[in-house]
Task: structure prediction
Amino acid sequence: MLDLLPSSSEQAALIEQALFTLFAAIAGGSVLIVAVSRNIVRQAVALLFCLAAVAGLYFLLGAEFIAAAQLVIYAGGTLILIIFGVMLTSKSPFARFQANRSEMIVAAVLSFVLLGSLVAGVLLTPRTVIAPSPAQRYPMATLGQALLGDYLVPFELISILLLVVMVGAAYLAKARKPGDRDSGSAR
Amino acid sequence: MPVASPILGTIGLNHYLILGALLFVAGTFTILTRRNAIGILIGVEIVLNAANLNLVAFNRFAHGAAADGSVRLDGQIFALFVIVLAAAEAAVALAIFLNFYNNFSSIDVERGNTLKG
Result:
């Protein structure tokens, strides 16, 4: 979307930089809140901000459709599911279960090692990057043709999967009547 | 291709990859340190988002802008499939959690250590 701006490429790069910094800061900050907070409701709200910021990054990368899908499916659907789960499964929404201290330390050390090796891997890998021109567009028609062309089989499989998931989730979560325990349901 | 520095250069592939690494690690940490099953699910969602960010970034910087001007969208399509699968996974996981809660009166994963509820 940067080429909508009637400005020099230098200005466009500056705007891209500013937007990237903004979205990256929101995503990184909210994801740290998720990792550190002990309150499940606060975690869910931080996840919402993280998902929205990642959608903004998709816009920056020129993937408008993915960004819209992220906002609609993730932020609008999956997150609502998670919040429903929080509300349905806790006696008090502020109930907390904590890992014990030694496990926390082990997890923190593992995470830092993992982060260090990942960042080192990213920075040390030599790769040839085809620099995209700022005007590089990914037309929606190409996406649709690829979905119904090269990727037709996974596309159809995923629609069957969604049907199975819908039926399965409805079956798994159906309310149990009292005294229903041994009535042969496959639970 | 500038590396990430305090003064950001041109935003390139490495910036997105490092942000993706940060998201991935934070998600892993969340998965490792939670007892609440829904907290673990939130961690999984963050990990999936990190992978998605990498896929879309690679599509933009390494694959999507071929020299001959043709456009490839494989990374974006993978990301789309991941989003849909994550939604499906969340639906089934929450159904299982509700069942778990019915059987154990708690959502603490440490308590789910018996085969029959």
